[in-house]
Design brief:
2 domains; Neuraminidase; mainly beta; seven-stranded antiparallel beta sheet
C-alpha cells in the first residue's frame, strides 16, 4: 500500500473536477397525482388573477414565511426564518407533521438556523440556506424508509497499477477515492452506528464554502465572504444546483459528489452526496446577463436560469445555454428594448422570481405590493395581487394610495386597487397554475389563480 499527501489530494480535486460526478445512483422521480397535471397555459379568455381563500397565516403556525418551494409530489415547503423552521403543507393547507424534523432547526453547535430559501430536488433532498456560505440538507426518502447501515471504510484498488489504498468515511482521501473512476472499491467495512446514522437522517451540512476542497476549486474564494441569497435545484436527475452570492455578485454551480454509501431500510443501496464547488456561471456586471446584488433564482426544464436582483441596471434576467457551447456558457436571453421584462424602471425592489412548466415568469414586485407575470418571450401578461374595478366618477375619492386610475369612460373610472399583498417576497407556482406568495409582514401565504382555470376545490374568495 501507499499513502497520498493531503495537499496532493486537494490538487487532484482541482485538476479532476470532471471525474467527481460519475455513475450517481438516483431515486426514481415521483409520480404526480392526476389532479396536479392540469395545464397552466394562458389564453385569450384570461381575465384576471383571483385571490384564493383562505389565507395561510398565523393560525397555520407561520411567523415570517420568506420563501417556498413545491416538490414533485405537490408538497409546499415554506422557509420561515423567524421560526427557524421549514413548514410543509399539502396544497389544501393541511400541515404535514411527518416533516417536523425541519422545525426548530439548529446547527451542530446548537445555534439556531434561520432558513431564507428552500428547494427540493428529484432525489427528495430538501436543501436550504441561511444567508451564510453554507447549504443544508434533509432527505425525505431516507427518513421514510430508514437507514440500516453505511460503509465506514473501504479498500480501493487502482485499475491500472493494482495499488491498494484504505480510506475511511469522512476523510479527504475517501472523498477522492469514491469520486475517481480510476479506482475501484474492492473491500468494505459497514456500520450501523446509530449516532452516525442519525447524523445523516437529521438536517445536516451539504455544502460549506470554507471546506478546503471548495477553496481549492474556487479561484475567487475569500474566507467567509460569500453570502448565499437564493437556491434552485434542477428539474431533472442532473447532479447539480445553483446558488446566488450577493457579496461576490455571481451565480455559482455546485456539483453533487459521492459521499456516503447507504443501505436503506427498503433494501436499496445508493450513494448519498455532498456539494462541491463547480464554477461561476455568470459574474458581476450591470449589463444583460450579469449579476449585481442577486436575491432570487429559478430554473426551467431547458436549463434556462432566471434571477432577480436589487443592483444596477436590470432587475430581472433570463440566461440560456449558449447555442454552440451549451450549458458550459450562458448568455442573456432577453435584451433592452426587445423584451418588456427588461424595461428599466418597470420593477420596484423585486425580491423573488419563479418560472412554471410553460416558462411563464412570475416576479414579486415587492415595492409595489404586487406580482408581475410575463409570457415566456418576456412580454408582459398580467398582474396578481391587485384588483381592477369600475367606479362612478362622482364616487371617486382622490388620494387613496392603494388605488390607481388606469382608464376611464364618460361616467366611470377603471382603477387598480391594491391591498391583497403588503410586502410580497418568496413566490412559487404549482402544476395547476396556482401562485403561492409569501408575505412575511403579515405572517401569511396568499394564493392566486387565473379566473378561467379554477378547479372546483380552489374557489376564489
Amino acid at each position: 500500500m501507499f499513502s497520498i499527501h493531503k495537499s496532493t489530494l486537494i490538487r487532484l480535486f482541482s485538476l479532476s473536477i470532471g471525474l467527481l460526478i460519475l455513475c450517481i445512483a438516483c431515486i426514481d422521480k415521483l409520480v404526480l397525482p392526476e389532479d396536479l397535471n392540469t395545464s397552466g397555459n394562458s389564453s385569450a379568455g384570461d381575465t384576471t388573477y383571483l385571490f384564493i381563500s383562505p389565507i395561510w397565516d398565523q393560525t397555520y403556525g407561520l411567523i415570517s414565511p420568506v420563501e417556498l418551494s413545491i416538490s414533485a409530489d405537490g408538497h409546499v415547503f415554506v422557509a420561515d426564518s423567524a421560526a427557524s423552521s421549514i413548514f410543509v403543507f399539502e396544497q389544501s393547507g393541511n400541515r404535514l407533521t411527518e416533516f417536523d424534523a425541519l422545525t426548530e432547526l439548529q446547527d451542530t453547535g446548537g445555534v439556531a438556523l434561520n432558513p431564507i430559501d428552500v428547494d427540493v430536488d428529484q432525489k427528495m433532498n430538501v436543501l436550504f440556506i441561511d444567508g451564510s456560505n453554507r447549504i443544508f440538507r434533509w432527505n425525505q426518502y431516507w427518513n421514510m424508509v430508514g437507514i440500516d447501515s453505511f460503509i465506514v471504510e473501504g479498500e480501493f484498488q487502482e485499475n491500472n497499477s493494482g495499488n491498494l489504498v484504505v480510506a475511511s468515511y469522512g476523510s479527504l482521501l475517501w472523498l477522492q477515492m469514491v469520486n475517481n473512476s480510476n479506482w475501484s472499491m474492492v473491500d468494505t467495512v459497514w456500520s450501523n452506528d446509530q449516532t452516525l446514522i442519525d447524523s445523516l437522517l437529521n438536517p445536516h451540512l451539504f455544502y460549506d464554502d470554507n471546506f478546503e476542497v471548495n477553496q481549492a476549486l474556487d479561484p475567487y474564494f475569500i474566507t467567509d465572504t460569500s453570502q448565499f441569497t437564493a437556491i434552485t435545484t434542477v428539474v431533472d436527475e442532473k447532479n447539480h444546483l445553483f446558488v446566488t452570492d450577493k457579496v461576490t455578485n455571481r451565480i455559482i454551480e455546485i456539483n453533487y459528489a459521492h459521499n456516503a454509501y447507504l443501505h436503506l431500510g427498503s433494501g436499496e443501496k445508493l450513494w448519498a452526496h455532498q456539494g462541491l464547488f463547480r464554477r461561476k456561471v455568470v459574474g458581476n456586471g450591470t449589463g444583460a446577463g450579469t449579476v449585481n446584488n442577486p436575491i432570487g433564482i429559478d430554473i426551467d426544464y431547458e436549463d434556462n436560469i432566471y434571477y432577480c436582483q436589487q443592483g444596477e441596471v436590470f432587475s430581472v434576467h433570463k440566461i440560456k445555454p449558449d447555442p454552440v457551447y451549451g450549458t458550459s456558457n450562458y448568455i442573456s436571453a432577453f435584451q433592452l428594448y426587445q423584451h418588456d421584462i427588461m424595461d428599466i424602471g418597470r420593477f420596484n425592489r423585486p425580491l423573488d422570481i419563479a418560472v412554471d412548466n410553460n416558462q411563464m415568469i412570475y416576479v414579486s414586485n415587492t415595492g409595489e405590493s404586487e406580482i408581475m407575470v410575463f409570457n415566456s418571450n418576456g412580454s408582459f401578461f398580467k398582474k396578481a395581487g391587485i384588483e381592477e374595478i369600475q367606479i362612478n366618477k362622482e364616487d371617486w375619492v382622490p388620494g387613496d394610495s392603494t388605488s390607481v386610475i388606469i382608464d376611464s369612460t364618460d361616467t366611470e373610472y377603471i382603477i387598480v386597487q391594491k391591498g391583497l399583498l403588503l410586502d410580497p417576497a418568496g413566490i412559487a407556482v404549482d402544476d395547476r397554475g396556482v401562485i403561492y406568495v409569501c408575505d412575511p409582514q403579515t405572517s401569511s401565504i396568499v394564493r392566486f389563480r387565473l379566473s378561467n382555470s379554477l378547479d372546483e376545490d380552489l374557489q376564489p374568495n
